[in-house]
Amino acid sequence: MPELPDVELFKRYADATSLHRDVDDVFLRSQLVDDVSPGTIRRHLRGSRLEETRRHGKHLFLRSSNGGWLQLHFGMTGLLESSSGDAPPHTELRLDFADGGHLAFVNQRKFGTISWVDDVDEYVAAGELGPDPLADDVDLPAFLQRLESRRGTIKGALMNQEVIAGLGNVYTDEICFQAGIDPRSATAHLDDGHLRMLHATMRRVIDEAIACHASVEEMPDDWLLPHRESDLPCPRCDGHIERTEVTGRSTYLCAGHQQRIG
Questions:
Q1: Which helix (H) or strand (E) holds 4?
Q2: How many whole angstroms from its chain centre is CA 54?
Q3: Which terminus in the chain has less CB density within 10 A, N or C?
Q4: How far apart are CA 261 and CA 146, in angstroms?
Q5: CA distance 163 to 35
Q6: pLDDT 10s digits, 32-50
């Protein structure tokens, strides 16, 4: 499932391939359209240009020169593809550019959403989305405040989009793995030292995942992701990777070096 590093890469891809090109036509299936009519989206995009992009958590926003923002949420299998040939299978939205080629939003399993918003900040506030982990205002004091008095597991807290927007199942496991903290640990029992470690690890993991193009093959061998399978040797200690369930999600960890707290 695309998480923050993937969506940041989609943003950069759209910046590199699709900005400032005239949109001649719009193909749009209605199945993923949310809160507005397909006609509204087509009307805003036809004859416009994409002027800039923004990302907040797992959401990507593309601003039209006609005003307003195309909003994309990638669900489980969404991606962007720019091409001068035929649109790929499972295309839900395609912008056809006047100079040839197109930008396609592809979503095979159809769990994403396509919408239109007038103001990104208002959308974020209305959706009660937490701050983006890469934003400057998510410094250590803000991170500590977001987790203050949270109940439940630390994995559940980090995956809660109202607490921090952008982390999902896979990267939450990676952050906990590298921080040496069991994702089943009780958030309320973590001290400032544990939370400092999680904050620093969160920023580093996200930055490095983006630098690795969110590709498991390019990630360091001592990360969890290349070894995300039960009973494989842990790349950081003499333990083994084990699979369990936390907050209803498949979770991978190594009890050999990840401390369970609370």
A1: helix 4-18
A2: 13
A3: C
A4: 19
A5: 24
A6: 999 999 999 999 999 999 9
Tokens for 252, please give them: 């991978």
CATH of the domain at 105: 3.20.190.10
CA 61, 80, 94: angle at the middle one, nearest 5?
85
Give the pLDDT of residue 111.
85
pLDDT at 136 over 90: no
- Give 150-194 pLDDT, tens digit per residue: 999 999 999 999 999 999 999 999 999 999 999 999 999 999 999
The answer to whether residues 101 and 22 belong to one domain is: yes
CATH code for position 243: 1.10.8.50
Give the residue carrying structure tokens 């050999």: 256
Contact in structure between 252 and 243 (CB atoms under 8 Å): yes
User: How many domains does one find in the chain?
Assistant: 2
Boundary (domain end) residue, out of 126, 154, 170: 126
The CB density around residue 111, as the number of other CB atoms within 10 Å, is 14
Residue type, 4: L
pLDDT of residue 88: 81
DSSP of 156-212, one letter per residue? HHHH-TTTSSS--HHHHHHHHHHHTB-TTSBGGG--HHHHHHHHHHHHHHHHHHHHT
251 CA to centre of own chain: 18
Q: What token pair was written down for 61?
A: 């926003």
CA distance 165 to 153: 17
The values of phi and psi at residue 56, to 5°, are -135, 115
pLDDT surpasses 90 at 110: no
Q: Is residue 65 part of a domain?
A: yes
